[in-house]
Structure formats: structure tokens, C-alpha cells
Design a protein that fits this description.
Elements lengths: L2 H17 L5 E7 L12 E7 L3 H17 L3 E3 L19 H6 L4 E14 L5 E8 L2 E8 L8 E13 L5 E8 L6 H18 L4
Parallel strand pairs: 2-3, 2-4
Antiparallel strand pairs: 1-8, 4-7, 5-6, 7-8
Helix pairs in contact: 2-4
Length: 204
Amino acid sequence: MPTSIRRAVFLATLPVALVGCASTVVDTQWRNVELPPSYLRGATVMVSCETGDDVLRRICEQQVSADLSARGATPVFAAPGTVAAIQPGIADAQYLPAARGSGAKAVFSVTVGASSASVSPGMMLSIGGFGFGRNSGGGIGVSAPIGGGQVSNGYSANGRVTDVASGRLMWSARASTPPSSDVNAQLADLSKSVLDAAGKAGLF
């Protein structure tokens, strides 16, 4: 088969392959064996979302704080300039001084990034890396259109709970949502899925 035809067939199959699952799912979850029952119930919790897009960050933090409040926790945010650069060795250690200053029991941090894409015909794709917040990973790159088309991204959220007193990671889960043009709805679904997973793990 000529190279041009093979390339065309490959690109034509990408939209189907990249759409993925049809609903938001929790991909994986980890729980510290020393996690006390109802650890976050009634607790003050510092919230932080990490992403390269400031609008996504604000939507994420607003949604996560609302979902925490609905489950009986009191969300707080770090004051500007109180979070230092990321520190190696301890999960989300950069938030701990600000969290202690606000009287928070734990830090609930969420890293958000694009994880999949649905591409209409007429777009050329490249598979590469993407960066968000202080983290980076594999992702999907989209080159200039060669005949029109629209790209819808799917996002993933990695939620983590770190104990402020000890600095230990207590729980973590990752959820992903299928590609959609409604980013607000995706972030709402991701926040709910991550918080629901935390509830099932006994944090509330």
C-alpha cells in the first residue's frame, strides 16, 4: 500500500481511537493504610489546582471547594506569594507552610491536564508531550488544520490528599473524562468523580 494511502487510513482511524470511554471514570486509586476513618469530615482543607491554564485552574478550584463544602469540609486557599517552588521528596510539600498558617488539616491538590482528543476530519495529529502546572507527561499535539475541523479535548485529574502535620500522602486518585467542547462540565464531572472516590475510600 502506498505511503500516502497508509497515512490517510491512519489519520482516519484516529478520531475513533482517541475518543475513548463515553463517561468520566476513576482510572486508579491509592489509600494509605494509616488513613483514619472520616479523615476530612469537618476538617479545614487547603485546596489547590495545578494546570497551565489560569481559567482552568480557577474553575477547578471553585468546583473542588464547592464539592468539599458539600461533604462537610471547610475549604481554604493559600494567600498569594505564600507557596514556594515544588520540593522533592514529599507530596505537595510546597503547600504545607501556607496550610499550617491557615490551620488546615490537609491539602487537597488536583493536577489537571489534557489526556485525549476527538478530532474531526481535516486535522493532522501528532503524538507528543504536554505540560501543566509543575508537572508534565505524554499527551496529544494537534498541528495546523489542513482543511478545517474541530478538536475537543478530554481531561484527566489527579487528586491528592496530604496530611499537613506529618507531610504524608494519605490518598490519591486519578479520573478522566472523554473529549467534549464543554470544559466546565468536564471539570465538574472530574471534581465530583474524584471527591466521590475519596468518599468511598472513607475520607468523609
